[in-house]
Amino acid sequence: MKNCAVVILNYNGEGMLSQFLPSVIEHSNSDVWVIDNASQDGSIALLEREFPTVPLIKLQENFGYAGGYNWGLESLKGKYQYYILLNSDVEVLPNWDQVLISSLESDDDLAAVQPKILSFQNPRLFDYAGAGGGFLDDFYYPYCRGRIWNVIEEDHGQYDDFAFVDWASGACMAIKADLFHQADGFDAHFFAHMEEIDLCVRFRQMGYKIGYTGQSRVHHFGGATLARSSPRKLFLNIKNSLSMIYKAETSGKFWWIFIIKLLTEWLAAIGYYVKGQGKYGSAIFRAYKEFWKGKSLQGRSYKGKEFIRIGPSRWIYWDFIILRKRTFEKL
Asked: Where is the Glycosyltransferase 2-like domain (predicted)?
């Protein structure tokens, strides 16, 4: 038994597993596990036929990213010192996991760390999901070194360093197992999207740090489970972002942020209707409705520990749209 488990959460990912799991097995110095979220395709048959040495945890229904990992990792509780949570559509390179684990071992206060995440389709470019490490602006909008909104940078080695960040990408993140369980894992209300950012915010409020290392690299296919630009993803991102802020901030700070986000995002919703993209506009309005209906059920985890962002105060929307700062180095 090794001290780290690479854990892949799968849902109807037969094609992704067939393409990418061989690289994970070949290049990992850790145990490799698959959690299956009640797939309806041939994933189970593929795993049992082609990868019989990979342990499989079968869940009885699709609990989403958050619930799937929570239930699956409960089965591994106490067996490993570290988890590496890895999407099924990620190609890994030699020593990728060793570098991540070494980073965690080198700092007692480091809760999680991500690698450099590049595009599988074009490895010269950073990937949308995490890129060179994630940050949050004053209104909890995420952005990355290497990716701001939809502008993707080329990789010229500019982020080959180690850096402390606000959040690590759920596409590939190494995490200390005891801290994951101590924090009660992901918020299962989220189902999918923003859950890794929410967890990192809670880690930061617990007094721990989040890291990025450019010495570990992976290639992410992206959009294998849910298209990058879809009404469903927009709905989940906005609803879950509101829930994260509601839990993380005091009442006064939350309402200030809420009003700014409401004005900005409802204007965006109207813009979608004007452009004939009503499904996206409806997704925004529905996200606010669902948040409002469920916020009292989710509780508030804020216990007086302020979330301190890495870097200066900013509103990334203003930087990007008004000041036209489209890359991280220009911020």
From this structure: 6-123
Q: What does the alpha-carbon distance between residue 281 and residue 275 come to, in Å, rounded to a whole number?
A: 10
Q: Counting Cβ atoms within 10 Å, is residue 37 exposed (0-12), middle (13-18) or buried (19+)? A: buried
> 55: alpha, beta or left, given left = phi > 0 and alpha = psi -120 to 50?
beta
**Sign of torsion over alpha carbons 15, 20, 24, 27:** positive
Q: How many of the other CB atoms lie within 10 Å of CB of 319?
A: 18
Q: What would the pLDDT profile of 52-70 be if each residue is shown by its tens digit?
A: 999 999 999 999 999 999 9
Instruction: Tell me how many helices (H) and strands (E) the chain has.
Output: 10, 13
- The label of the residue with tokens 């290639």 reads 219
- Residue 140 and residue 127 in contact, taking contact as beta carbons nearer than 8 Å: no
> First CA to last CA across the chain, in angstroms?
45
- Domain locations in the chain? 231-319
Helix (H, G, I), strand (E, B) or coil at 258: helix
For residue range 96-145, list pLDDT tens digits in order: 999 999 999 999 999 999 999 999 999 999 999 999 999 999 999 999 99
Helix ranges (H only) for the chain are 14-27, 43-50, 64-74, 96-105, 177-182, 195-205, 231-248, 251-274, 278-298, 316-317
Cα distance between residue 329 and residue 331, in whole Å: 6
